[in-house]
Design goal:
Oligomer: single chain
Order of helices and strands: HHH
Helix content: over 70%
Number of strands: 0
Largest sheet: none
Radius of gyration: 22 Å
Distance between the termini: 33 Å
Number of domains: 2
Number of helices: 3
Length: about 100
């Protein structure tokens, strides 16, 4: 499975509130896509160019949350190893 198969970047942006309508229309007018379909990737590209501080803020927040999750995962892994250390060593000795 390719990484881009999991991505929603190529999804068409749905126009279901005023803010989305404005952003979709702005992006469509700026990029003028051939099929008149505005994707999430297009919107991100336009926002990155026209409102980079928003994208930077969101990226930083996402990075921090990912880093915090990684630390939590490491702590949980260490906890599991401490709690199951003896049993894991027994299984290795038998193998």
């Amino acid at each position: 499975m390719k990484d881009n198969e999991l991505s929603t970047l190529s999804d068409k942006a749905e126009n279901d509130n005023q803010l989305k309508e404005y952003i979709i229309n702005y992006t469509g007018e700026k990029l003028n896509p051939e099929n008149e379909s505005v994707t999430l990737e297009m919107i991100i590209d336009v926002l990155a160019e026209d409102f980079p501080e928003l994208i930077l803020c969101m990226s930083e927040e996402n990075w921090v949350r990912g880093y915090q999750q990684a630390l939590t995962d490491v702590e949980e892994g260490e906890k599991y190893l401490r709690e199951n250390n003896e049993e894991l060593h027994k299984k290795q000795e038998v193998s």
